[in-house]
Amino acid sequence: MKPRSVLPALLVTALLSACATQTLDVPRADNYPVSAQKKARAVHHWDVLAEDVAGRIAEKLQGKVGQQAVYVVPAADSAFHLGFRKLLISQLLAKGVEVGTQPTGLDVRFDAQIVRHHSKVANSVQLKATSLAAGIAVVRDLTFQHSAAAYTLIGLAAAGGYDAAKLALDGAASGGPTRTEVLVTTTVEARQRYLASSSDVYYIEREDTSLYSQQDDGRSWKVVGQ
Fold first, then answer.
1. Which partner for 69 in 60, 92, 100, 223 could form a disulfide, CB atoms 3.0-4.6 Å apart?
2. Residues 10-38 pLDDT 10s
3. What is the pTM of this model?
4. Could you give the CA distance from residue 99 to residue 91 in angstroms, rounded to a whole number?
5. What percent of the chain has pLDDT over 90?
């Protein structure tokens, strides 16, 4: 088959495939609009979250509970839970919210839930050949001699096109999106009622999940009958 006849053949195949999919009697899979999500990679990021949560708590409690102090209830024994509690207390005080050292009847509770998705991440360049071709197209009108320098320049242009597409789809965060996330929920409770609630979701690296999980002290317990 001649090179010029390859493109029409591919187009015909694509059209036939598209027509075949129209016979399916189930809804098609569609994407959500483009959105962004932060990635937690340092304790500083926990502090940024604590500041934001403290600001929301201060705003929601303004004029509702007078001068009553809040009590940040200790949570699970993990690096995140221990650290976030300290950071949240500091940020609440910085926002002018009184914080008690003992239960006051106005509890601030928080928790972190790890969510692991088993499917592969979808934020990747699906048409890599197209991305490469886009980079090559930048220099296609230039006249080169068959030399190593010419091929090097073409390769650099191709790599630039691929990297630009990768950055546009994955975002600027190091490593791009992951299939592991953490859901941080904070509530303010009094008299068995919720006064305020907030939820935040972050990407985390799979290797960092132990920071958000209950610490294992290595002890074992034996249950005996009485």
1. 100
2. 555 555 555 555 556 788 778 778 778 88
3. 0.65
4. 10
5. 36
Q: For residue 40, how many other CB atoms are within 10 A of its CB?
A: 23
Place of tokens 């009590």: 71
Q: Would you say 103 and 71 are in contact if contact means Cβ atoms under 8 Å apart? A: yes
Residue 43: closest CA among 76, 82, 99: 82
Find tokens 């207390």 and name the residue: 89
Q: Helix/strand/coil (H, E, C) string of the chain?
A: CCHHHHHHHHHHHHHHHHHHHCCCCCCCCCCCCCCCCCECCCHHHHHHHHHHHHHHHHHHHCCCCCCCCEEECCCCCCHHHHHHHHHHHHHHHHCCCCECCCCCCCEEEEEEEEEECCCCCCCCCCCHHHHHHHHHHCCCCCCCCCCHHHHHHHHHHHHHHHHHHHHHHHCCCCCCCCCEEEEEEEEEEECCEEEEEEEEEEECCHHHHHHHCCCCCCCCCCCCCC
Name the residue with tokens 């592991």: 180
Name, in order, each residue with C-beta under 8 angstroms of 129's C-beta and a sequence gap of 6 or more.
none
Distances (CA, A) of 3 to 11, 72, 90, 137, 195: 14, 70, 68, 18, 69
Sheet order of strands, 193-203 included: 71-72, 107-116, 180-190, 193-203
Q: How far apart are CA 83 and CA 77, in angstroms?
A: 10
